[in-house]
Design brief:
single chain, 760 residues, alpha/beta, 8-stranded mixed sheet, 7-stranded mixed sheet, 25 strands, 34% helix, globular
Amino acid sequence: MIELATGVAGPIVGMFCADFGADVVKVETPDGDPERGRPGFPMWNRGKRSVVIDPGSAEGRAWLRNRIGGADMLITRDGEELAAFGLDGDELLASHPRLILLEMPVYLPGHVPWAGGVESAALLGAYGGQFARQSSVSGEPVESVYQTLLYAHGLWASVCAVAALIEREGSGFGQRVTVSGINALQQLTMISLVVDPNAPDPSTAVGGAGRHPTYSRMIAGDGKWFTSGALGPRFEAMFMEVIGLGSIVEDERLGGSLANMVAPENIGWVQKAVEEAVLKQPRQYWLDRLDAVGIPSGPIDGREGWLDHPQVAAMGMRVEVDDPDRGPVVMPGVPINLTATPGAVRGPAPALGEHSGKVAPWPAQPRPAADARPLVRSGPLSGIRVVNSGPFLASPYAGCLLSALGADVIKVEPREGDPFRKPAYGANRGMRSIAIDLKHPDSIRAFHKIIEGADVFIDGLRPGVTKSLGIDYDSLKAINPGIVTMSLSAFGQTGPLGGRGGVDMVLQGMAGMMAAEGGDGEPIVNTISVCDISTASMSSLTIALALFHRLRTGEGQRTWDTLLGTATYLQSAEIIRFEGRPPAIVGGVDFQGDGAFDRMYRAADGWVRIAAPDAPAKIASALEIPEEKLADKDGAIAAIGAAIIDLSREEATRRLNRAGVPSASVRKVTEVLRDPRLCEAGFAHVYPSDNGGFIATPGRIASFSRTEWRGVLKPPGIGEHSVRILEDAGIDPATIDQLIERRAVAVGGPMPQILPHAYR
């Protein structure tokens, strides 16, 4: 693979490919990747080779063209970056029919709305609605201390790139794959984007704990913080019983259902009741009580010691390398696990130009037959069948993502349905549903028949549960030798926490993410379910890698990933350690950014985000501020704030961007949904709801030049496709009738298309 992309997201794709054995050549200009001096570079570029090329050199351009002729994939930011090296994407694809050209524009192809076209999680989060959706004390926008959108961009692009390689194994042809920063935002902020576009944006003034009283962070009577993962009707009721509020459901304001706790009019008083109850006992008391009834929970710790946690080490997520520029470096390991083809950190990041003159040409890629025609398919994973038994959020969303790439995904759920299917409306889109009682004596034979025709089986159950049900890898392999199984758990199966249950909220707290967001104040819950949603992408990548291996060898395998691994990956630049590294940014209540030139400022009609830490002179010029007023941080914040407060967002960002200061308006989700450019790009799908409104969901989240999947993904009803799925498995009608009659299988109709109350 040739990696031209610089920064964060593009090199992350190269990192995952290198971790799993690809020969990745990082091509840099004489100045090097701008990220070389920043903490995350040693991780995102590990295991690669570095070659320096002067883009204006005829010799360098010839060398690059020669190597592209033997490459499987070329990773670049956009056409402008290609043009700097004298390359044209269309010409490359015509000349090299097997090439996968992965383009990763920072916003939309051909359009970046801020000066310089720089890659920026802050500007993308501001302009894309993420900051305006974060829970806060004031109700004003809040930003994260993490570059989560860039981590999501690199991860999701990796999934799409491997999916294209899978398709190429069958068709023999490559294609252009485009995964933009907007696609990353769609994929990561999925829950926030599933809304009625004509309803008001929900108030975010619910505090740093978020909007769910039992699925949150809490302070105990000894002043120590912990998280509760009580989500879903069963766990919510159990939690209230544990803390002595079991009768709260009888309050007429809840209408007999704890699901109404997250209604806007109920959040405040229910949160207060829970807070007062929890203050009656110390943290360990509550952790013991919650553990005893099976509710996931955990202490809130700092991120500084996360890489030293025994469970992190047990999962292989703590790795040490000898970096040529930094010396010993401790970094996160490979967060996904393939048992037959395991990944590994294969060396440190290279020194600049370390391999110049040492990269021999690769053999030319074989050309398709003269009469061969590229196949046109509905998604690069068209023809792949996935059976998905995972409940709640992460595993279902993995199924949704695979559906968006063209796979046929079957959601296997209990007769009564996945308990979290309504709150996780957006995560369950695109799948077919069979409602089946896997504990019923008649059902396992039917399930095994479904597995016979499957390529992949996903489970999100606690370790050991699949074996007890007879649906573990060894049992399924006996039925389908080529099956790929993917198991998601919180902590894995070994180590001191192996086998324990866990959820996004618990890992955010334990891994130090909440403490970092809160800084010296109280821990802050990220409104995005970052661990769950990113683990869905991790699971998709794991599956894609295993399918690619199976296409090459015919061999299936058992694979697995963990919320722990994802929580570690999502802090790549923040927890990596080496001598002399600068401290990572920490936040605070209603955090607005770090430094005077890299933060949000209030305008006359909202907020704007400036991202120019090294350009005070340009800011002074744009806003007509004497430069001496920007000499110290507090003075600069006051001066810039005073200059912007009377300007509209449009006028402020126009002046700043015209002066070369990257800046963007901080927009609400409903503003983003009305953006003409995004509407044209298929940012959202909008369709009528069953209660008279409309529902917006994320639209196309990646583009493939030849195997584009198009359509609207909607969640299925419980058992809506039970009969058809059983028929597809070759089960005769009489047997299907018996399964239904004996209550081994349930049959239902379409799911009412009605949005639930937001729980985050």
